[in-house]
Amino acid sequence: MAITRIGPNQSINLASNITGTLPVGNGGTAITSGFINGGGLTMVDQWRLTANKTIGNTTSTFDANWERIDSTGQGTLSGGMTESSGIFSFPSTGIYLVSVNLGWGGVSALSTSDSRYFEFKIQATTNNSSYGFVSRMNGSLKYISNGTYQNLSCNTLIDVTDTSNVKVKFTAECQNDVRVSGSTSNNESNEFTFARLGAT
């Protein structure tokens, strides 16, 4: 692979690992370490719910109606996450940021009562079997009228040492029935973002 000569005090950003010698112009010293670790994010992916989901007073997994964002103006960087029945698998080993923004609402068709708690969890497994929550956020809802909404954010770092065994899923429960809205045309009060930050 040909590498363009650069001058003193210039820098380049590398999207992936390369091997070889990087020449530096104007009498500079060539870099001959033989390996340069690529800089910057190598994978950013985002998913959303495509249909409404009711959350009640028993733990519910977000196990259906998922899609990668695809509306006009949206995009991902080497989006490589895969999903099956709400279980998300990572495309390669590394340290990942998993970030969730979620809104939920009280609607008269479900319940007109206040909800003292709404609990959302990011759950992870390292053996492709046993899940435990690694991040949890709580909220509450004062029902005022049909379509009263609240929002929360939840995030964590996941150390993916084995793509076959390290996976995540999302669960929630609420004192009274509430709705998490979904849409196929935009991020309707929910977005689930995955970003690979670097090597494990």
Which descriptors would you attach to this protein?
2 domains, five-stranded antiparallel beta sheet, single chain, globular, Jelly Rolls, six-stranded antiparallel beta sheet, mainly beta, 200 residues
SSE inventory with pairings:
Layout: E1 43-49, E2 53-55, E3 60-61, E4 66-68, E5 82-84, E6 87-89, E7 94-106, E8 115-125, E9 132-141, E10 148-160, E11 167-174, E12 178-180, E13 190-198
Antiparallel strand pairs: 1-4, 1-13, 2-12, 3-11, 5-6, 6-11, 7-10, 7-13, 8-9, 8-11
Outline of the structure:
This protein has no helices and 13 strands. It has 200 residues and is mostly beta strands.
Explain this structure:
This protein is mainly β and 200 residues long. It folds into two domains: 1-40, no CATH class; 43-198, Jelly Rolls (Sandwich), CATH 2.60.120. The protein is 0% helix and 44% strand. It is built from no helices and 13 strands. The strands form three sheets. Strands 3, 5, 6, 8, 9 and 11 form a six-stranded antiparallel beta sheet that branches. It has a five-stranded antiparallel beta sheet with strand order 4-1-13-7-10, with no helix packed on it. A hairpin with a 2-residue loop joins strand 5 and strand 6.
Question: Would you identify the CATH architecture of the largest domain?
Answer: Sandwich
Regions with pLDDT < 50 over 5+ consecutive residues?
Answer: 29-38
Indicate the radius of gyration in whole angstroms: 22 Å
Helix content: under 10%
Structural class: mainly beta
According to DSSP, the number of beta strands is 13
Indicate how many domains the architecture comprises: 2
Largest beta-sheet characterization = 6 strands, antiparallel
Q: How many H/I helical runs?
A: 0
Task: Please identify the top-level CATH class of the largest domain.
Answer: Mainly Beta
Per the principal axes of the C-alpha atoms, what is the gross shape? globular
- The H/E string reads EEEEEEEEEEEEE
CATH fold label of the largest domain: Jelly Rolls
Mean pLDDT: 86
Strand residue content: 35-45%
Q: Cα distance, first to last residue?
A: 27 Å
